[in-house]
Amino acid sequence: MINSDRLTAGTLGTLMPPAANITRNAQRNESQGYAALWWPDHYMGWFPQSVWTPDITPLAAFQSNPDIFFDPLVAMAAAAGATSKVTLGTAVTEALRRHPVELAQAFLTLDHLAPGRVICGLGSGEALNLLPYGIPFERPVGRLQEAVRIIRLLWSSDGPVDFEGEHFHLRQAVLGLEPTTQGPPEIWLAAHGPRMLDITGRYADGWLPEFLPLDDYRSRLKRIHQARQDAGRSADPFTPAMYVKLVLTDSHEQVPCATPGRR
What we know:
CATH topology: TIM Barrel
Number of domains: 1
Distance between the termini: 23 Å
Largest sheet: 7 strands, parallel
Oligomer: single chain
Number of helices: 6
Order of helices and strands: EEEHEHEHEHEEEHEHE
Low-confidence stretches: 258-263
Shape: globular
Number of strands: 11
Mean pLDDT: 94
């Protein structure tokens, strides 16, 4: 994450049992100096069970299947009570399985458990978490845009609100729970395509894409900044970040499966 020209690093929160590791690992990661802990929101994992065997991945010896995930919001609540400094965020959830009013209330609750330390990371969704469960994967970007607007509307309103969109409709809807003095939570978007980048610039506090080559990252961030300028948000705080899987060693030769001569 790059905030005020300062580069910080986060890591994954605990995703699977035993549950005691949620708090134990959160405390350890905080003491190690990590700036943030992140939880994906998945029912199903990224790898088919047919390849989850010890001869293909050593992880199969420790994890019975690739589809074991804690609910991220519950795990974040547990981590919140065990830490005092580290930021806690989703990387990412969406407004297809979770209604925007549910997201607004849940993240405000986390804001009360960890004031000023919560990030609502949202994306447009993935088919593997939706179609097998009978949840339509239709017009996800439009739903996301409306969801962000609804969440912000509920967080900033003292009384009933109305919202008339293509995907969501609110009639005299209330959310009495208010943000803490250090809130509300920041909203970061996992954006890659042009429309998502524009939405990020107009509505979000941060950007959390999957790994991008430097030139691609730079050009996409430029588009976000242009959208922020067009929306009159250039002076608002904004954090560019990136979700990337790394292997950290003292030398290239120590990296597992490293190809000699390649960097």
